[in-house]
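Feature request, filed as a ticket because there's no other form

It would be nice if the structure record came with a short human-readable summary line next to the tokens. Right now we just get the raw output. Example of a typical job, pasted below so the devs can see what we mean:
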Amino acid sequence: MELFNKTIGIRNRQERPYGAISSKGRYEEMMENAKKIADDISKEDGVIGITLCGGLSRGYTDELSEIDLDVYLEDDIYKVWIIGMGPVPHSDALWEDNYVDIEFLSFDKEIKDEWDLIKKWDASYNVILFDPEAKIEALFNKKDVFSSQEKFYCLSKSFGKCMYIGNLVILQWINRGDPIAANQLINNALSGLINLVFLANDEYPPYEKWALNYSYSLKWLPKDWKKKISEILLTKEISIKEAERRRGLFVDLYKDCWEKIVGKELRDLEFIDFITLHELQFIIDNSPVPFEKFAESFDIKHLSYEPIYKFTNITIKDGIKFISFNRKKFIEQKEANFPEILEWSKPFLKKLKLT
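Raw output as currently delivered:
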């Protein structure tokens, strides 16, 4: 669904979210050790490139840190190393008093594979230590794309956590008189809210381990983000009153993030209303729309849902199926305050622009 523009080159931004960790620990020493280990491994046959990943690549270490390295190999060499016939161990090991985690990767497979968002996030911080033919740089540039489809997926998943779990379901448990379930679900919904604030900044959502900590450094945050998150996490007692307090703070933060993404005018729209508004506007702006063109970007079953169903017609001309907007019916319904439309659909229908 083309609701967003794709973003290319996030890893090349001068300022990125970073960990709020006070100790640098053995950073300089571990960086030197990482370079030495990479240099030793790079001398082996079939090594295409080596990158530093993990916390060290993002600028910090502490007593919990290790040296994380990704070793990109020719495919035939990878098949030898991965079964224990290579010169170094795979995964966690001890290397001259350094805790290391070395990942073997087939370069050919990495080129072909689709990277998920967590892998893109991790790679966007990787430091290239060995890349004689610039193949790793080219690979990272190719994969460093936050697509419109991925953004829509993040938005829909976050909405499910925020306004379904964090708002509606919690309210249901409040009304059913179960404060334990209501308070537990607020904690459950927080991961969706945190990912949403990264989307509002056009940043990859981090691995859950780091997400909240990294959110503190984002360029845009809802007002009093850290303070309100702390107040949401603080459960003073297991009660209905406490669930209502925490839910109120949660929904306020969600609405601020939602407004940042879709604009102030659409702040109060539910996610499904936002999608339907976009679909109807697309039909209005392009009417009559070839059915296949609509199907390229939207779910065709939405054509059978109200209110799209009541304001569009499907026609066939020269064997081609078209979707047309029924302007006359829409204007008549709007003037009468949409008497044939569900009450909760009326507010967003009034935001449609007839071109």
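Something like this underneath would help us a lot:
Strands lie at 7-8, 47-53, 67-73, 91-95, 98-106, 127-130, 145-146, 289-290, 312-317, 320-325.
The chain has a mean pLDDT of 92.
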